[in-house]
Amino acid sequence: MPTDALSRVFAALADPTRRDIVARLAVADATVNQLAEPYRMSVQAVYKHLRVLEEAGLVSRPPGPQPRPVRLEAGAFDLLEEWIERYRRRAEERYRRLDRVLAAMDQAGEHAGEHDEHEERQP
Amino acid sequence: MPTDALSRVFAALADPTRRDIVARLAVADATVNQLAEPYRMSVQAVYKHLRVLEEAGLVSRPPGPQPRPVRLEAGAFDLLEEWIERYRRRAEERYRRLDRVLAAMDQAGEHAGEHDEHEERQP
DNA sequence: GTTCCTTTAAACCAATTGGTTTAAACAAGA
DNA sequence: TCTTGTTTAAACCAATTGGTTTAAAGGAAC
Predict the structure, then answer these.
(1) Pairing of β B59-60 and β B71-72
(2) DSSP state letter for B118
(3) Residue B105 sits at the chain A interface (C-beta within 8 Å)
(4) Cβ-count burial of B106 within 10 angstroms (0-12 exposed, 13-18 middle, 19+ buried)?
(5) How far apart are CA A49 and CA B56, in angstroms?
(6) Chain B neighbours among A 31-60 (CB < 8 Å)?
(7) What whole-number distance in Å separates Cα of residue A61 and Cα of residue A51?
(8) What is the mean pLDDT of each run of 10 residues along chain B (123 residues)?
(9) What per-residue string of b and e applies to B66-81 under the rule 16 or more CB within 10 Å gives b?
(10) Rounded distance, CA A56 to CA A8, Å?
């Protein structure tokens, strides 16, 4: 439980049932029983899944009259996208750069082409 | 291991060490020993982490001379972003719609406002 | 107040996970 | 070939996870 927020979000979405719940909540709020109905597991198991999603900040259960609805929290997705975007972008840049290097090596001949390019020397 | 691709990717990134590895690979390829150096765990543990990342398609280890480099595979990020984008967008739309409904309820008086709006009736 | 549904809690279980250590197979360089 | 560094594999361990069942507490409606 003392794991960081990002780990909690990723871990929460690593389970197919939990992703399915998120998918269904994306189209409409639902009560726990509604959510549990299609699955072949106990209602308590669904409560457990919801607690995981809740602790990850992906879902909230606003208080109110008894069959409390479960609501998708769009905010947690931003955390994810921020992280992913950051590294994906860098990776793609590196690929483009690598492609240029390979192309240059290709037309220059293959005598100097070794595997020492991982020492970064970009500005 | 018979889990689906998306689960593997999410699970792989649910570990901070693994995310750190990805982050470092985003700036430059590295050998396993280079990757393992800053951590206080055994090199074998890092190999295990890399196997997880590899099976998730986030990383590849192109064959070649002995200290084989580890390379970030940008492709797997697309899977993630695709999934996230889909549901985040829907969730946001629903929020906007809900805001309108609430605003309408607000200026119409609060006698009819119950919690039955999760039966979707959008076209 | 009782009864019924919803929610939370607890004890338990099998499987997975993130590590370890030890050992063996591979590849290169001297 | 011998030695050294890299990679993979195996056996083990503690902690976590995704489920279960059972039980109890909270709220609504009658």
Answers:
(1) antiparallel
(2) T
(3) no
(4) exposed
(5) 23
(6) none
(7) 10
(8) 88 97 93 95 97 96 89 88 86 69 52 31 26
(9) eeebbbbbbebbebbb
(10) 5
Which pair of structure tokens corresponds to residue A18? 């939990």
pLDDT digits (tens, 9 = 90+) for A17-76: 999 999 999 988 999 999 999 999 999 999 999 999 999 999 999 988 888 999 999 888
- Is B88–A81 a contact, with Cβ atoms under 8 angstroms apart? yes
Does residue A103 carry a pLDDT above 80? Answer: no
Specify whether the CB–CB gap between A70 and A31 falls below 8 A: yes
Q: Which domains does chain B have, with CATH numbers?
A: 5-75 (1.10.10.10)
Question: Which nucleotide lies nearest residue A16, CA to C1'?
Answer: D18
Write out the two tokens for A40: 């072949």
- Which residue out of A87, A89, A95, A122 would a mutagenesis test of the B interface target, given it has the greatest number of B Cβ atoms within 10 Å? A87
| Nucleotides of D strand lying within 7 Å of any protein CB atom | 5-10, 17-23, 26-28
- Nearest CA-CA partner of A80 in B58, B13, B21, B6: B13
Q: Can you tell me the distance from the alpha carbon of B76 to that of A108, in angstroms, rounded to the nearest whole number? A: 32
